[in-house]
# Entry
Amino acid sequence: MSAGGESKRGGAASSSSSSSAPAHSLIEAQRRYIDKMLNGVDGMKMLLLDGQTTQMLAMIYSQTEVLRNQVFLTDKLGSAGRTERMMHLRGVVYVRPTAENLRLLAKELADPKYSEYHIFFSNVVGGDKLRALARADEHEVVASVQEYYADYFAVNHDLLTLNLSDSLLMSLPRDRWDRRQQDAFARCCEGAVAALLSLKWKPLIRYQANSAIAQSFGRELQSRIVQENKLFSFGSAASRGRAQPVVLVLDRRDDPVTPLLTQWTYQAMVKELIGLDDNRVDMSNARNIRKDLKQVVLSCVDDEFFAEHMNDNFGDLGAACKDLLATYQKKYKDNQQMDSIEDMQNFVERYPQFKALSNNVSKHVAVVGELSRLVQEHNMMAQSELEQELACSDDHSSQLRTLKGLLEDPNLVGIDALRIVLLYALRYEERSGNQIAALKRTLQQRKGVSPTQIALIDTILSFGGAAKRGVDLYGNKGLLGSIAKSLKKGVVGVENVYTQHQPHLAQVLDSLLKGKLKDAEYPFAREGSQQKNRPQDVFVFMLGGTTYEEATVVSQLNQAETGVRVILGGPHVHNSQSFLKELELLSASQSRVGY
# Structure
């Protein structure tokens, strides 16, 4: 590293200065970093990213915004096509501090293409890595190195993911972990630390006592906060009139029901029925879809309609989409009336906004139309009603009769048949005379359900059955508690049978925010710690993955204007398919290690 180069720990959003206010949005916290990074380097720039920071950036920052900051080109670090020297540009490197990226950086610095390099790591960098980087800077082109703590994917303002697709494997005993589980555990810790630093929260940490992995994670997170104590010196929360933040570490196994249910809110339905990854929706399988709508983006950052309605239930969404279309039609008619030069000038001025509205209307009408088609084609109303009944009420004979009738329907998709049987097994596993074995035989006779998938009935019971859960998921104080009713956004005037269920997370948050969460069930990671005041800032980290149904609970809490701010995160945001895929990985690993 050059003599004049600078190395800094921390950036704008995580400075140790107590005068800088904590962030209350994951997206805004990350945008602070990107603004600081791009605005802090003068002149024309070349932006070099890795595969993950490319996606992290794309989720919160538009290409237009990047170009506006004098970024001449964007490419991936290590790209073979980047051979031309452009010494009139400054290189801005934004990458995760991985061993592979350090190797690629050393290779880049050995043959520099730009006049100088400003390197930004998305997380904490060990001193040994910085020393290796300094040794690699033989041409003395590194002008600065900084840590910016944005090492997560900000899906919503209050939801993050790490895009790990195998985190359920961490539920195996730690003495049977291989490199895969160790890497996933380390990545979860890194992502949680980065989120806390970006929010400027120095928290108390509590974990689910009945979960070995939650305990390990909570204590490791506490250890890392102590180790990086200088980075967490934000000033006390009390000095800002807030209680000390809390990290609550939960285990997916205490609620295996939520990821299995059909969803009925906009963002969750798109994830479940079409697919939603890094805010991108693949509509290429939709019928009669226009070419320009085969790939669309649904983001609360730059789509006002989506930001407002992403947690609406399907009925309300249809009405909102109709209103959006009516607004467009009115503007379209207004734009047709051009009787003078002044009218033409006004049209030209309004055209960019009108075109943006037109594109947005086309996008949402296409997505909602495809959702409607899939709901009808797969008879999801009847299927979802039974799912909700299995999740929320005990009526064995009636539910079994309905279940058998659905399994006889040839139009029922195999994976949906499996999900309903899994829900039945979770509810009635301890009931004398249950029909789990008979339902397995019925599934064996259906097309589209493999023996591997049928084996998941046993896997889910060994993972999240009654003997493994720390809560009475189906008791009177379970999923239909008071907070479930207070947070529910049903159809006005009628009982919405498709949204009866509320995740177990709702009850846990209710207890925490009321100061009623028992220390024995959710102890502190640091011995002697205690929560003196009811928490106002909470970061829930769900090991095993979160869901959009849980994200809706969190969003509704944050919108209630009670002064409470909850952030939800985990290694993955599941729909039913991704959850079942991870269960298959877990099943295979259990067989391999003899667990």
